[in-house]
Each structure stands twice: as structure tokens, then as C-alpha cells.
Amino acid sequence: MSEIEGPLERRSSVAVDVGGVIVGGGAPVVVQSMTNTDTADIDATVAQVAALHRAGSEIVRITVDRDESAAAVPRIRERLERLGIDVPLVGDFHYIGHKLLADHPACAEALAKYRINPGNVGFKEKKDKQFIEIIEKAIEHSKPVRIGVNWGSLDQALLTRLMDDNQAKGSPMSARAVMREAIIQSALLSAELAEQTGLERNRIILSAKVSQVQDLIAVYLEMAKRSDHALHLGLTEAGMGSKGIVASSAALAIIMQQGVGDTIRISLTPEPGGDRTKEVVVAQELLQVMGFRQFLPVVAACPGCGRTTSTVFQELARTIEDDLRRNMPVWREKYPGVEALQVAVMGCIVNGPGESKHADIGISLPGTGESPAAPVFVDGQKAATLRGPKIAEEFQEMVADYIERRFGENGGKPLERAG
Description:
Helix content: 40-55%
Protein name: 4-hydroxy-3-methylbut-2-en-1-yl diphosphate synthase (flavodoxin)
CATH superfamily of the largest domain: Dihydropteroate synthase-like
Radius of gyration: 25 Å
GO molecular function: 4 iron, 4 sulfur cluster binding; 4-hydroxy-3-methylbut-2-en-1-yl diphosphate synthase activity (ferredoxin); 4-hydroxy-3-methylbut-2-enyl-diphosphate synthase activity (flavodoxin); iron ion binding
Function: Converts 2C-methyl-D-erythritol 2,4-cyclodiphosphate (ME-2,4cPP) into 1-hydroxy-2-methyl-2-(E)-butenyl 4-diphosphate.
Organism: Pseudohoeflea suaedae
Pfam families: GcpE, GcpE_C
């Protein structure tokens, strides 16, 4: 049997400093998100940026589409600083970005990065001129840029030229392949123009977003062959709910498994009234299950079957997960290394005791018809048996006590496992 290999070594890319967060150059993959508030609504935008940051977003992008939103940016930055939130803000510019940056220098200074879409930065003879004006503002304020191509607003002149060239050659490439090539060339040619204008290579991040999984994989893997720029990954218009989560995870997992990608965003359409922070949670969970980063302790829980007609183990697993996520901002500072904790909440005798022994701390709840007792295993050894109506509360207390003993005074060094 062949040996199963892990992820390929991270592709070498140029490191970019985005407001103190390093993207690329071998740094851990960065989690990014974007607000969906009207940026001119300072209260709403500050609240959502704060929520996204608390959820784990390390960079937050905001829309800068008109004078009112540009004028609000420095005030948003000030409000966040007063709250003790120093997350880098990225300005998302389309159509009139060159004008907004020129007319609102305080906005240009308050942002940590500018996002430019070469497909709609300007049209015809104005395209390169207005692109260069934004790059010059980035140089003036010492800011990095993300050159973000999107197939929904692809440079039509470039696409048309490539289609015509392909047809003149007897159409050796499919229309889909030509479109992918246009996306890649749009990013690389724009980066080349930015460097010719004077922007350092270590201030450029590229992205090339499409909404189909196979197209995204093909575009990014090919672009990585042609460039050492830091790359931002994301499946655009991924969709709502499980479809968006599955599509984004499938595409990004394959790309990152090949060592490609330096920062990611999961572009989920929120359910009506839904929580915007869901995209941050999904991004963290993807990086964690792939083994690239560790954000939260792992909670293993069985899926349930006919042996587990009670919902007790499901409720306990959710309670433990919610408790860990809620406390992590404090625990991460208080208990170094707590992200490595492994907890098991199992529902019956079939796999319960064995899975619990594999975890740092685990509980095996009684299944249907089993004795109403719940053995708890700590570091591989049975430590207690819980009974009665307060099993959940007692196990939570044991988890908190274990965290304190292992990661508190012990300085984050794992206790030796028994057995």
C-alpha cells in the first residue's frame, strides 16, 4: 500500500505586509472577510467589522463606492481603534477608485490595502490611466494592493483579443480555456503595469475569482506556475448555505493541497437575517481540518444512529463546541496551546469508549437501552463515571478543569498521557 502524503509544501510567494498581517512568504494562510453594510453607515459598519474580527477574521474588506463611504473610512478606523480593534481594513474600489482616493486622502491613509478590479477600473483609453492613478496613490501612502480579477467583470477588450487570436489559429483552445487564459493574463499584465509604475512586488497580491469549482482550480494552479505573487483564494458568488460551503471548500482545499494560496475568503450569501460571521467560521474550519492552522480545540462527536435515540449527546456536543468558541478569545491568551485540545462527545458503547480514549478528554454517553452511566476518559484513562441529570454540567466543569491544569500553570506544555 502506498504511503498517504500530506499537503504539498507551501509554494514560495512574496511576503506582503497588510497592516501588520503578513500574507505570503511562507506565513500561515490568512482568513479574510468582507462587510455587507453601507460603509457610510458608520455604526453598522463598525459593529460588523468588530463581529467579523472577534469571529477570527484577520483582514476585513469594506466597500468604498462613493464620497460618503470614503469620508466614513477614517472615522470607522478611529472608532475601531477606540474599541481596541486593530484589524486591517481593505478598501474595495470599482469605477471611481482613482477619484475617491485623490479626493479623500484621509481614507487613503486609513486603509491598510486597496483592492482594484482591472476589469472595471476604467474603460478603453481611460483604463490604464485610472489604474495607474490608483497605483500611484498606493505608492504615495505606502499601501499594498490586491489586483482582483473577477470573471463577472473581466476585461472585455482582452478577452475579445484572445478569442480572435484563438480563432485565427484555427481555434486550438476551447472558449472556456480562452476565458481562463484571459483571467490569468488580466491579473499578470496588471501586476506588471503596477510594477512598471513603481509599486514594489512585495506590495502586490493577486486574485482570480470565478464561480465554478473546476475553473477556479485550473486558473489558480496555472497562475501559480507563472508568478510568485502572493495569492488570495476565493470562489466568487459561491452561493447560500450548504451549497456555498461545499463548493468553496472543495475548490480551496484542492488548491491549497497543492501548496498554492496565501489568504482565503469564503464568499457565502447569508440567509435572510443570517450571521455574516459564518463565512469566517467556515474558513477557519476548512484550514483546520486540512491541517494548515489550528483555531479551536477539536470536538469529535458521533453522527448518531438507532442506538442513540436520545439527543443528549448532540446537545452536549453543541454546548461544548459553543463554549469553546465563546471562550477562545480569552483562553488563547490565558492558556497558550489550548487550540490543540481534543475533546470527544460520543453517544453509545460501540465507539464511545475507544474514541474517548483517543481524545485528551472524552465522554461516552449511554445509548438506547444502555446503563444510565457516562464514563469520562482523561489522557487515555478512565477518570470518572457521571450519572444523573447534571452530566452535561459536570462534564463541562471537567473540561474547564482539564484546560486549567494542562494549559494554565503548566505553561501550555502537554501533560504526559497515562498508558
